[in-house]
Amino acid sequence: MRSGMKHIMPRALPARCAAVVILTLAAVFPLPQPAAAAPARIADVRKIWDRGEHNAFTDLIRWRDRWWCTFRESAGHVGGDGVIRILESADGRTWTSAAALAEKDIDLRDPKFSVTPDGRLMLVCGGSVYLGTKELKGRQSRVLFSADGRTWTAPHRVLRDGEWLWRVTWHQGTAYGVAYDSTGGKGGGGQADEWLATLYSSRDGLAWSKVSALAVTGRPNEATVRFLPGGDMTIMLRREGGDRMGWFGVASAPYTQWTWQPTAHRFGGPNFIAGPDGRWLVSTRDHTTPPPGAKTGATTLVARLETDGILAPLATLPSGGDTSYAGLVWHEGQLWVSYYASHEGKSAIYVARLTLP
Predict the structure, then answer these.
(1) Which of 94, 165, 186, 245 could staple 141 via S-S, CB 3.0–4.6 A?
(2) Rounded Cα distance, 31 and 33, in Å
(3) How far is CA 66 from CA 15, 89, 99, 302, 331, in A?
(4) 209 burial type by CB count under 10 A (0-12 exposed, 13-18 middle, 19+ buried)
């Protein structure tokens, strides 16, 4: 791991560039606890889908003046042949099913949206093989494309067996994403002691090239890639080994030399976008704030990433049990958040609107 400190200073930008992003990576141990932040106001929360046995792992996008939400339906959190459901809405309140995407004997899971340079909607998701069991027998990433959000190409396999390309972000005509491999490069369904995380890029979403191997220990896995106004790349990365605390990383082009900052927070379904003031808005599963009336358990958190690399909570969404994996969109002065939770009994899909302080 490279350590040190990197400051990205504010500068004036057009409104469409979300003003200024500030991120500081400091090698300070232990990290200080976050200062109290003014809470966000939860303007609205509504359940938009619970028709599957288990509904989970969401993403949200605003595309062609409509809302699109995607998630997985299956028999449970693990196992089964998961189906990717896509909902659409004109106003974010009334939702209808636009598509249900399936592949025989494959658990399609964790779908994530992006928009290609030619304006098509793209989905990336995992394709796991369980064959009627709870034991993973293999995994390979899939990509799908649509010109209208309703009719989709067949799932196309990318990368090698064992690699999971978790989210894709386009920047200046190139797609980037981090794939993790829990098999340590062996493929199949086994788990290695240490997992691999690799940054990839693509010009078309189909053919992918290795950019750099990420020197992150502790079983790195789910990762979201974003870009600063000057072109530097930032990664929010989950870890499931060691202390299990999530890391943030930053690198300048060509994105081969990374500075990493461990955080004091366990991530689950990590996502982040730039807010109206340019600071990062973060969502993750939160293991520090149990649901109301419980002593332990997880909830879904929305927070700001502060300049010392810690998360300052803005809101704990109504959630509990199996929960998190949020989609984030800033739209007309509010933060829109899709997520799933099982605090009402059945794992269901929710959309919340937050007004920030």
Answers:
(1) 165
(2) 7
(3) 21, 6, 15, 23, 11
(4) exposed
- Kindly report, residue by residue over 27-64, the tens digit of the pLDDT: 322 334 444 568 999 999 999 999 999 999 999 999 99
Distance, CA of 32 to CA of 53 (rounded, Å): 41
- Cis (ω within 30 of 0) for the bond into 262? no
Q: Whole-prediction pTM value?
A: 0.90
Q: What are the residue ranges of helices labelled H in the chain?
A: none
Omega before 254 within 30 of 0, i.e. cis: yes
CA angle 145–147–152, rounded 5-degree value: 45
3-state secondary structure of 228: coil
Mean pLDDT, residues 337-356 taken together = 97
Mean pLDDT of 127-152: 92
Which residue's structure tokens are 């358990």? 297
Residues 6+ apart with CB under 8 A from 197: 178, 179, 180, 181, 213, 214, 216, 220, 221, 223, 237
Cα separations in angstroms, 105 against 70, 108, 137, 319 = 20, 9, 11, 31
